Amino acid sequence: MTAALAGTVVAVQANFYRVQLHHPPANQPAMLLCTRRTRLLKTGQRVMVGDRVWVEEPDWQGQRGAIASVEPRSSELDRPAIANVDQILLVFAVAEPELEPLQLTRFLVTAESTGIPVQLCLSKCDLVTAGAIAAWQERLAQWGYQPLWLSQNQPERWPLLLKQLIGRMTVVAGPSGVGKSSLINRLIPDLELRTAKVSGKLGRGRHTTRHVELFELPQGGLLADSPGFNQPELICSDRELAQYFPEIRQRLAADRCQFHDCRHLEEPGCSIRGDWERYSHYQDLLEEAIAQTQQQNRSTQEDVGFKRKSADGGKLRYEPKLQSRRYRRDSRRSQHQSVAEALHNAELED
Ligand SMILES: Nc1nc2c(ncn2[C@@H]2O[C@H](COP(=O)(O)OP(=O)(O)OP(=O)(O)O)[C@@H](O)[C@H]2O)c(=O)[nH]1
Ligand SMILES: [Zn+2]
């Protein structure tokens, strides 16, 4: 028997795993459709997209193989479900749609709460002046972020992003319409992900709702789109929230609060309360987190986790509420399904 081959699971379909081999033998396919060895089935070892695996018994002609073992994971994201992610590339547009600090903060907090490094990326910078970019740059630096600036029409900006992606496994996240598909299509020209331009609300994103897949960069490295991130379900309790703000982390590193369980509201001897820009966002999200925790203590299943909020112009939109980890552990799957349904229904209603 030949030695096992190292590979990465790039897609999961039912009980089949698409595995990209790290070092395929000369003249053999680099991608094999694999099953799990019975030994893995018996131990209940789950195989996820992103898993580094060992493949045995390759059938080169039929492009098949069997996964014999799974390497320990360095990280495990659950929405989208991907193992070993090195970084989250959080994409926001600097215009169209307008960059809203609170919405950006929600996404940042969600991304930070995974524990995986976050790289912020601001797209469509062809739509604003150099002055506006400089102003945002300065502002975001105060928040603790150094974004990459991108535009489809300004190729000189792309090498910096590429440098950040080569050799890593990256999940691309961000709200709808900011240019994620355009970005992935540009990085991986063979892919031709559908962009939002042609499709109306109903068509948008439908292809990807439940399916996660890793795509290979021609220069090396793997990228995943993350439909699950389109409406972030902020996943932290009131206790955890503070650590997802770089500003608070920095302040706490320099100076402690008087009380170890300080919520940084009215407590005496607080070193966080102050006139930094996102302090009000912290307060808003904390209030939500507390309300959420209380509500979860009262009820569980029926609540879908979304509330309607009146946006500018009286138009209604859905906003995610904070979910605590405990709640998520209990009912994660059913809840995700109902969130997807709620979004689906919201789109139909509009
Ligand atoms: N001006 C400008 N428009 C852009 C840029 N990148 C993308 N767009 C446009 O923005 C729109 C949305 O782009 P998509 O790539 O579909 O955005 P998305 O984030 O994938 O959206 P969803 O699929 O809804 O999640 C399209 O009309 C793009 O042509 C850019 O750099 N500059
Ligand atoms: Zn405090």
Automatic annotation (TrEMBL):
Domain called CP-type G: residue spans: 74-232
Chief location category: cytoplasm
Protein localization: Cytoplasm
Highest taxon, organism lineage: Bacteria
Cofactor(s) required for function per UniProt: Zn(2+)
Entry's cofactor comment: Binds 1 zinc ion per subunit.
Biological processes per GO annotation: ribosomal small subunit biogenesis
InterPro entries: G_CP_dom, NA-bd_OB-fold, P-loop_NTPase, Ribosome_biogen_GTPase_RsgA, RsgA_GTPase_dom
Residues bound to GTP: 123-126, 174-182
Residue ranges annotated for the EngC GTPase domain, each copy included: 83-230
Keyword match Cytoplasm: yes
EC number(s) reported in the record: 3.6.1.-
NCBIfam families to which the protein is assigned, alphabetical: PRK12289.1, ribosome small subunit-dependent GTPase A
Record protein name field: Small ribosomal subunit biogenesis GTPase RsgA
Species of provenance: Synechococcus elongatus (strain ATCC 33912 / PCC 7942 / FACHB-805) (Anacystis nidulans R2)
